[in-house]
Amino acid sequence: xxxxxxxxxxxxxxxxxxxxxxxxxxxxxxxxxxxxxxxxxxxxxxxxxxxxxxxxxxxxxxxxxxxxxxxxxxxxxxxxxxxxxxxxxxxxxxxxxxxxxxxxxxxxxxxxxxxxxxxxxxxxxxxxxxxxxxxxxxxxxxxxxxxxxxxxxxxxxxxxxxxxxxxxxxxxxxxxxxxxxxxxxxxxxxxxxxxxxxxxxxxxxxxxxxxxxxxxxxxxxxxxxxxxxxxxxxxxxxxxxxxxxxxxxxxxxxxxxxxxxxxxxxxxxxxxxxxxxxxxxxxxxxxxxxxxxxxxxxxxxxxxxxxxxxxxxxxxxxxxxxxxxxxxxxxxxxxxxxxxxxxxxxxxxxxxxxxxxxxxxxxxxxxxxxxxxxxxxxxxxxxxxxxxxxxxxxxxxxxxxxxxxxxxxxxxxxxxxxxxxxxxxxxxxxxxxxxxxxxxxxxxxxxxxxxxxxxxxxxxxxxxxxxxxxxxxxxxxxxxxxxxxxxxxxxxxxxxxxxxxxxxxxxxxxxxxxxxxxxxxxxxxxxxxxxxxxxxxxxxxxxxxxxxxxxxxxxxxxxxxxxxxxxxxxxxxxxxxxxxxxxxxxxxxxxxxxxxxxxxxxxxxxxxxxxxxxxxxxxxxxxxxxxxxxxxxxxxxxxxxxxxxxxxxxxxxxxxxxxxxxxxxxxxxxxxxxxxxxxxxxxxx
Length: 685
Hints:
Layout: H1 4-28, H2 34-72, H3 75-112, H4 115-148, H5 154-194, H6 206-243, H7 246-249, H8 259-290, H9 296-318, H10 326-351, H11 353-361, H12 366-379, H13 382-412, H14 415-437, H15 442-492, H16 504-545, H17 560-574, H18 576-593, H19 595-631, H20 643-684
Helix pairs in contact: 1-4, 1-8, 2-3, 2-5, 2-6, 2-17, 3-4, 3-5, 3-6, 3-14, 3-15, 4-5, 4-6, 4-8, 4-14, 5-6, 5-16, 5-17, 5-18, 5-20, 6-8, 6-13, 6-14, 6-15, 6-17, 6-20, 8-9, 8-13, 8-14, 9-10, 9-15, 10-11, 10-13, 10-15, 10-19, 11-12, 11-19, 12-19, 12-20, 13-15, ...
């Protein structure tokens, strides 16, 4: 294990090199016509303008937190926080940069070479995101562990790194989600419902902002989200390796009696597993590229199914060499397979029979569409959470609470390929928008529509995967928090923290924690509604005051920069309060009411947050694909512009902020609360 940090950093660096190769390959492809290149440039400039504004705000926030951590925990912990925050932003930036070049080239590939070529371009663009997320995470964690593994403050350092990644991911995901859904909803309400013009019609001033939003929300925001999950899972396992009692930790390697050696192994194991996972994911990405001539839905489903088997097989070969029990491999495999099951269940609810049922409910109006969509979202929660319970039970049986952390690491070991598949979706969506705005013809649009429909499903699968991994990670972080508190209390000779549901403080915490996901969900939905309202008024103004715009007269162009400016300002302003709730709540509860109340709040937020975020993500994805099902002629006699289609657009309007703003925001909320609580555990003990 002595060379592990170097191997981890080396594997991460190798992933970045491959990402760079994919990036330049995508850039070398033709952009198409001058009109296509101009539209792509507008999207790229809008995305960069948003990120520039957002990063200024997040930079100021990071400096304030750095000062507080340097004051309370020391400058090294503060520096680790900055490193976690910086790498989180960098992962999102690299992915978005690649996506904004890949979108127009996907459309051009669909026009010139067909479906397989377009699929390959979108996959290569997504691979840059996937490899950067996993590569930068591994470089950060491997570097910190390599430098500070013998430092008595290692726990504080890696916890600070995780807080940096988590808090930035929260703001990036919520801010990007507000932007993308405000633009999307505003463009749909005026364009498709009121003006009865097609989606991505060049006459609609909101279309460019909508395409910008796909990049800042589903690429940069999602990248930061998955990066944070990746880091938090590893840090949770490290924390448990440092604090678990020896009798419980001994299940990991029964033949090792030396405590120092066993703890070193337990702390290093998650880093070893993520290194193996990244190597396997790189192989998986190239296997996926080789399957590009198969139907897109098949390719992307196989891309999610293959890595868990490869990761488990590689672990079965490597772990026994370090004296680890078979239970370690089984636990890792349970997490990896559990993630695949959650992804496939999400795929079912967002692309198969439930989608047709929602579409059919649109025949009787928007009310029945909304009712059916909510029912699908509620039903979709059951199997993923039961799966996670089974994974947790199996993991606990073999390795105790430490096993649950390893299962979370196993679920996230294939992050690079999962993120590749997820980032493919917004690239394909943008490609479809560019083909529509450029007037490339129905045959090209048919290809991009198919890729986009599959992309909607992969995006939903990515969200389900992120939420599922968040649940296991938070359980591990919760256990690590309890052990950190008890370790500090033992040093002071105080009574240990014991959570009893009949105790008033624990019940208070449970109820308070249950409030927070609902509160953040309400804040983010309201934020999207307010921002979308302002965008609706601006689009109406342009249709009203620019002569010939709605009629599509030659030489009459919309003013998309006005919409981009409105969406950017609203997203930056509205992301602050929900983000503050997640970051500030744990210190307030912990310092004012004590560890018992905070522990209860973490449990309450986990139970409500996991359920609510899955409901929103899956329900929103199903509403979106039900609308597309009708647009493709899935309901005979009811095509675009019909009453059934308009009802489906209403459902999609509700589902958009569900799946891309509130659901992901709630998922990150429970992780941020847990990571912040773990960091402050010794201070509130």
